[in-house]
Amino acid sequence: xxxxxxxxxxxxxxLAPAVLYTMNNVPALHxxxxxxxxxxxxxxxxxxxxxxxxxxxxxxxxxxxxVFAEFSFTCLVGxxxxxxxxxxxxxxxxFYLKMGEPHLSTAYAVMMSYWEGVVHLxxxxxxxHRMFRRKSYRSLTLLWVGSSIMQQLVHIPGVVVGKHGSNIxxxxxxxxxxxxxxxxxxxxxxxxxxxxxxxxADKIMAEQKKGLLSRPLDLPFAVLLLGGVAGxxxxxxxxxxxxxxxSFRYIYQFEPYLKDPVGxxxxxMLVYLFYAVPLMSLLLYGLIRPGCSWMLDxxxxxxxxxxxxxxxxxxxxxxSRTPFTYRVPADKxxxxxxxxxxxAVVPALLALRCHYSPAYFMKPVPKGQSxxxxxxx
Length: 377
Description:
The chain has helices at residues 5-13, 16-24, 32-54, 64-85, 94-99, 107-131, 138-161, 175-191, 201-208, 218-239, 245-253, 264-288, 295-318, 333-356, and strands at 195-196, 375-376.
């Protein structure tokens, strides 16, 4: 009996710990260039194997499959790294932490690796399952796109500008393709029309006649988005060393982690300031202006990005690998947690709201449109 594709990918991915264990016990492979070379060769071999396995069905295989299957392998590498750093296993990553990517021992990188090894892997397997059964996987892929882009936007610059910037080995640059891949995936998805749910013209018109104050579900989202914009602007100024007294008090009394020399929290706040703030402003516009069908896609991208970012930020600010002086003070823990959790939960709830009740965001259709036809946008 033929195994499901997602199980084949999972089985292939489970070889990653065995490869790491072997490399960790072969001293000849513990130099920077051999580490990079072996890594590229292994990923290339995985890709060739996938191409061989799918060759009988090549015309029907979505090219995104190869990205998801290849990344599933690296997810197990990340999970292995996180488990070793937290002391659950040993003997797998020592060589790589010394001569590959030393920054993976930081609290932020440990939380990032957990997210990659659990959440991304589950997403990939579910996407592959749906892909080969001709079911829609657009929404799940957009969640991954947002999560992956945010991960690398913080990860790569954070290493370069942080305390590990003077200790970068060739293996670090393997992250560049992982940064570019989600943009390519997004371009493929956005070039394909989204199949919109069936909604009558009368219902669309009725929803779009309502102002923001007449939509009790959307009004709290608008207020929370405004609060998120204010909070992200404020924290952006804080990491830019704003000399005002309230900035000084916040950094020492609420989130000293923002000053951790690893660089990741500072870069994350700047990503929020320069990318998340404009996107939140656009989402706020989409809640006010009817017919913004792009809201159905971009709320998913933003939800994935904030979920990944906040998991890493919250986890790292509390993790034992973060020096005690940079952890959240115990007396301010719930205040800081509340804000950071809201920053992850609100975009996710907004994406769900757009998905389950999209009439307000759909483009107006002729009154006589048949209920039995799907509308593509």
